[in-house]
């Protein structure tokens, strides 16, 4: 998947999850480039851990001294960012604004 033409919509769900709906279909082998693209849009992300599963991948990351998990579920083409702790709730909305502005 080329990262030059990636487009998506964002939906904040219950203040603890940010759903990312990519316009184009993607596959499990695309998740590293999608992750890199999203992190590039956010700037200054630090990957802490990547967990690979049969149809699901998770990436724990730090952004602005807060901790989040980027989730990909391949069969359902689902992608979302969730808070790792309750203290990250306000920052999730900032992530949404940052991704919408880039």
Description:
By secondary structure, the chain is an alpha+beta fold. It has one domain: Double Stranded RNA Binding Domain. It has two helices and six strands. The chain has helices at residues 31-42, 89-101; strands spanning 8-13, 17-22, 46-52, 56-63, 66-73, 78-83. The chain has a six-stranded antiparallel β-sheet, covered by helices on one side. A hairpin with a 3-residue loop joins β1 and β2. The radius of gyration is 13 Å and the shape is globular. The chain starts with 7 loop residues before the first strand and ends with a helix. 18% of the residues are buried. The model has no long low-confidence stretch (mean pLDDT 90).
For the record, the CATH architecture stands as: 2-Layer Sandwich
Biggest sheet, in brief? 6 strands, antiparallel
Number of helices: 2
Mean pLDDT: 90
Give the low-pLDDT segments. Answer: none
> What level of helicity do the residues show?
10-25%
Q: State the name of the first-level CATH class.
A: Alpha Beta
Category from helices, strands and their pairing: alpha+beta
> H/E element string?
EEHEEEEH
Through-space gap between termini: 19 Å
Sum up the overall morphology in one term.
Answer: globular
What CATH calls the topology is: Double Stranded RNA Binding Domain
The count of DSSP E runs of length 2 or more, i.e. the number of strands, is 6
Instruction: Report strand order across the widest sheet.
Output: 1-2-6-5-4-3
Approximate strand percentage: 35-45%
Radius of gyration: 13 Å
User: What is the total domain count?
Assistant: 1
């Amino acid at each position: 998947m080329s990262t030059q033409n990636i487009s998506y919509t964002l939906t904040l769900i219950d203040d603890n999850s940010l759903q990312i709906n990519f316009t184009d279909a993607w596959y499990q082998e695309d998740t590293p480039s999608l992750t890199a693209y999203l992190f590039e849009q956010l700037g200054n992300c630090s990957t802490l851990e990547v967990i690979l599963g049969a149809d699901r991948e998770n990436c724990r990351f730090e952004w602005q001294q807060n901790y989040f998990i980027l989730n990909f579920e391949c069969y359902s083409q689902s992608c979302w960012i969730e808070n790792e702790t309750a203290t990250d709730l306000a920052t999730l909305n900032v992530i949404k604004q940052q991704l919408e502005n880039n």
